[in-house]
Amino acid sequence: MAEFDYDLCVIGAGSGGVRAARIAAGHGARVAICEESRVGGTCVIRGCVPKKLLSYAAHYHEDFEDAAGFGWRVGDIEFSWPTLIGAVHRELDRLEGIYRRLLDGSGVTLLEGRGTLDGPQAVRIGERTVTAEKVLLAVGGWPWVPEFPGAEHVITSNEAFHLEQLPPRVVVVGGGYIACEFASIFNGLGSQVHQVYRGDAVLRGFDHDVRRVVTREMAARGVVFHFETQVTRVDKTGDGLRAQLDDGSVLEADCILYATGRVPNTRGLGLQEAGVEVRADGSVPVDEYARTNVPSVFAVGDVTHRINLTPVALHEGHAFADTQFGGKTRATDHESVASAVFSHPQVGTVGVSEEDAPHHYGEIDVYQSEFRPMRHTLSGNPEKALMKLIVERTGRRVVGLHVVGPDAAEIVQGFAVAVKWGLTKDQFDATIGIHPTSAEELVTLRSPVQGARNSS
Fold first, then answer.
1. Which residues lie closer than 8 Å to 380 by C-beta, 6 or more apart?
2. Which CA distances in Å does 388 have to 101, 421, 432, 435, 440?
3. Each residue of 202-227: pLDDT tens digit?
4. Confidence band for 321, pLDDT divided at 50, 70 and 90
5. In terms of CB atoms within 10 Å, which of 135, 190, 230, 238 comes out highest?
6. Closest to 268 measured CA to CA, from 134, 147, 114
């Protein structure tokens, strides 16, 4: 008789957990996976997928306006939030069904309920406890809202997908990618949007030109920014909500969405009791092979607080399963991971920013261009795109690439291969561009900007 019920028990059926469970089962392991909510996790159910669908919807009003410059006459335009949200949730139901079938088809046992550690090799789900030789933590993150008077009146990105109607007046609090994406979505769908952020520019940690251009273009679309300030209290009024800011101003709203960060979803998971090290922020430290300080417990995805992106969690889960059950020792390479922000305008980026580059590479050259995309030459839309390359001066390697504008994410996904594998500026220059496209700018930038930066 086997000593354990399972070879692997995964806590959390999001992207990283499902991938790890399926790959491990494919290697012949007996696998169970616990989920207290819906199979698919943050990305599929309450994150990237529904958010991207809303982002698509929010772009249409610009497309209708731009069409006039190309000879189209567009009649009366009407938007229905319930129709959009209904369609989004039908798609999420479809995707969840696919995830469930993938688990079942892989021979993974789904245990529905909250899984918590009951020792280093046991997981409790409700009144049931199962044992496993190895336990994988893949519980992801959860929105964080600070404590302040009236915090019970605000929502997070989780609840944004369940609003019954489009709120006419929205206050978005935060300056990160989630805040910018939802501010852009509500603005594009017709809401009056104010974005409140304690910093001096949105998208902290991104290249400074990316931050500048995104702020400029979002403001041009009608988002009203309140920088270097924060909400001190929220009160419910007869016709909505009132946000008091620390600069003395007041914002009236129908909805206040907090996007002030996410924290690892480890509270009440039984980690300390099982001897698993947990940082002050709730994250679980691991080595390059997803190992915690307890030999039988592993962790992947946002709970480790390394790079909180779905493709990273997928890669980490796959590498864990191959290493532990497939006889292939694999670590996840977290260098030069591309990412996108689906704000309006869109951002795509890979590699280092101009600010960080000198600390890693010494002297650098910066190539960049800001221009009006061709589709706007007839539309009258004043939007300008940004293309930027960071080049290590000695070896001429392209170590950073940043795009702001239409289809930025699609453009950068292809160029990410070049940056990841160390192509040089000379190799970029030797590549013939596709004309006429915005992306060709990245292989036709010939002169560095004046006063190229260095390590001093």
1. 66, 69
2. 43, 18, 18, 18, 12
3. 999 999 999 999 999 999 999 999 99
4. very high
5. 135
6. 114
Is 79 in contact with 346 (CB distance < 8 Å)?
no
Average pLDDT of span 42-59? 95
Helix 177-189 crosses helix 208-220 at what angle (to 10 degrees)? 20
Name the superfamily (CATH) of residues 345-443.
FAD/NAD-linked reductase, C-terminal dimerisation domain (3.30.390.30)
Chain-centre distance for alpha carbon 399? 22
Amino acid at 423: L
- The number of C-alpha atoms within 13 Å of 285 and in the hemisphere containing its C-beta is 8
pTM: 0.95
Q: Give which of 270, 317, 283 is closest to 41, Cα–Cα.
A: 317
pLDDT band at 451 (very low <50, low <70, confident <90, very high): low
Pick the CATH number of 6-142+263-325 from 3.30.160.150, 3.50.50.60, 3.40.50.150, 3.40.50.720: 3.50.50.60
Closest residue by Cα to residue 121 from 214, 32, 210: 32
State the Cα–Cα distance between residues 280 and 264, nearest whole angstrom.
11
Find out whether 376 and 66 touch, Cβ atoms under 8 Å: yes
Q: Top-level CATH class of 151-260?
A: alpha beta
> For residues 137 and 33, is the Cβ–Cβ distance under 8 A?
no
Q: Report how far residue 287's alpha carbon sits from residue 266's, in angstroms, rounded to the nearest whole number.
A: 18
* C-alpha span between 211 and 202 (Å, rounded): 6
Element (H, E) at 263: strand 262-264
25-39, 67-81, 139-153, 184-198: segment of lowest average pLDDT: 67-81
Active site annotation includes 435: yes
Q: CA–CA separation, 127 vs 312, rounded Å?
A: 33
Give the contacts of 137 (CB within 8 A, at least 6 positions apart): 11, 12, 266, 269, 271, 276, 284, 292, 297, 298, 299, 300, 303
Could you tell me if 382 and 65 are in contact, meaning their C-beta atoms sit under 8 angstroms apart? Answer: no
pLDDT at 308 over 70: yes
Say whether 87 sits in a helix, a strand or coil.
helix
Residue with tokens 């060709």: 440
Residue 394 pLDDT > 70: yes
Q: Cβ distance 152 to 143 under 8 Å? A: no
Domain pair 6-142+263-325 / 345-443, same fold: no
Per-domain boundaries in the chain: 6-142+263-325, 151-260, 345-443
Quick one: tokens of 202? 């949105």
The residue with tokens 């159910």 is: 45
